[in-house]
Design brief:
Blueprint (H helix, E strand, L loop, with lengths): L1 H14 L3 E5 L8 H6 L4 E3 L4 H13 L3 E7 H4 L4 H9 L6 E5 L17 H6 L5 E3 L4 H14 L3 E4 L21 E4 L4 E5 L4 H13 L4 E5 L2 E3 L3 H20 L1
Parallel strand pairs: 1-2, 1-3, 3-4, 4-6, 5-6, 8-9
Antiparallel strand pairs: 5-10, 7-9
Helix pairs in contact: 1-7, 3-5
């Protein structure tokens, strides 16, 4: 996912001179191509994430499209006040990208774990929360986030995630993507759990259950329409269990 992010932010900067990349002292080699092509639009803000968010908000207030990137707990938990006050209170176009979410950095200890970020960021007004399911969704989600000009948080895995979408797809923030069709149950996936959810759907298929899989790349705003559409199947499944 992080390689897809680096490639897409470089392409976006080529298309849009407003795009600025801020890093919290990581990804230096990852962004070599970006720095070679746009040296005046890359800022290594060091291990001062709160300052980085304040700087990003200031850049956005002056018409730029800043993207701030570092390890997830450091760009969310550590600077939550700056996100709430500087970005969301002013409703400015800052895209916040956290890499290595969840337990991706498990070996580095609890300081690097991030299991709460989606919960507390979606509680803040004027903040959109994205959790792409594969590198393709990362690219499409980042492009939409930068263009929309509002506060957006994107939660990434670390590296090596499988590419699920093999063909072009329509991507819209707030609208889930049906990855696998099914008629009896619907499995809802968010973030890089998508391969495991698809594997579960395949096991259900072998057990005689037709399972739809939906990728909820947007956690806020949540696509409640697909849940309503599948509620009929849920009632069917309960009846099937009761009569088995």
């Amino acid at each position: 996912m992080r390689n897809a992010f680096a490639a897409e932010i470089t392409a976006l900067a080529q298309d849009d001179p407003r795009v600025v990349l801020l890093s919290g002292d990581i990804g230096n080699r990852l962004f070599d191509t970006f720095k070679d092509r746009h040296p005046d639009r890359f800022y290594n803000c060091g291990v001062a994430e709160a300052n980085m968010i304040g700087l990003a908000a200031g850049l956005a207030m002056n018409g730029l499209r800043p993207v701030a990137y570092t390890i997830t707990p450091f760009i969310t938990t550590r600077c939550l006040e700056q996100i709430r006050v500087d970005v969301c209170y002013h409703d400015v176009g800052v895209t916040i990208v956290g890499v290595g979410a969840g337990l991706a950095y498990a070996s580095l200890g609890p300081t690097h774990h991030s299991c709460e970020d989606m919960a507390f960021l979606r509680a803040i007004p004027n903040m959109t929360v994205l959790a792409p399911g594969d590198p393709v969704e990362v690219r499409l989600g980042l492009r939409e986030a930068v263009q929309r000009g509002h506060g957006t948080y994107m939660r990434l895995g670390k590296k090596g995630e499988a590419v699920i979408h093999k063909t072009p797809l329509e991507f819209e923030i707030g609208k889930a993507i049906t990855v696998r069709d099914g008629t009896e149950v619907c499995l809802l996936s968010t973030g890089n759990m998508l391969p495991e959810v698809l594997e579960t759907a395949e096991k259900l298929h072998h057990a005689g259950v037709s399972a739809q899989v939906a990728s909820f790349h947007t956690v806020k705003p949540l696509d409640t329409s697909i849940c309503r559409r599948r509620s009929r199947s849920s009632r069917w499944w309960r009846r099937r269990k009761n009569t088995a």
